[in-house]
Amino acid sequence: MHRHSILALVTLAASAASAPAAGAATIQTDTRCYQEQQEVVVRGSGFAPLSTVNVARNGKVFASAQADANGAFVGKFATPVTPDEVRERLYQLSATDMVNTAVTTYRSTKIFANFKPASGNPATLQVRFTIHGFGLVRRRSPVYLHYVDPKGRERRTIQLGTAAGVCGRIERSRERRLFPFRAQRGTWILQFDTRKQYERATSKRRTPWVRKPVEVS
């Protein structure tokens, strides 16, 4: 983890209203799963008023915050990049003022789509698809595969299944033909998407997608 990727935690301004009764310390993130390097917002409450709260990820302190007069704080940081072979990771997040401690968990994921085996006769090749990160916007999203021919025209759309789990994954789909039709020669684009209606995906899209070129010779 590179320290320059961490954003400093910031103190939550004290409320003008009367402080709530003290209780057990708690922390929570603003959602349960994040894309790599996405900003995580963490909120804490129930800490000692005006105390310094140390925040750790998987047991390693990486930031601190000043609790307000109500014993609350809010902070932001970027979730780390994971190695290429790690597509989803569970993190434990903890916060302590040395008297009160709170713990929660969150996950991070790559947006990933691929198939195995990766090569063979496109007319007969049977593959299984793997999908990760397709539940970031909406839980249990259907996952579609759009076949785009070498001229940029959509040839067919199929549904691969439903993204399961907190981050949205299909670990191993049922075996099926890579091309469920006779594919002409050239570079095809396989666009994995949560939208049933095909539209060329760009960086402006909020919903997850992967475009994968496949050469047919």
Most strands sheet:
5 strands, mixed
Number of domain modules: 2
How far the N terminus sits from the C terminus, by CA atoms, comes to 42 Å
CATH architecture field of the largest domain: Sandwich
Q: Helicity range of the residues? A: under 10%
Uncertain runs are 1-22
- H/E order of the elements? EEEEEEEEEEEEEEE
* Mean pLDDT score: 89
Name of the level-1 CATH class of the largest domain? Mainly Beta
Number of strands: 15
Output the strand order for the largest sheet: 2-8-7-4-5
Number of H/I helices = 0
Secondary-structure-derived class: mainly beta
Radius of gyration: 22 Å
The CATH superfamily title of the largest domain: Macroglobulin (MG2) domain
Shape by Cα distribution:
elongated
Could you provide a short overview of the structure?
The chain is an all-beta fold and 217 residues long. It has no helices and 15 strands.
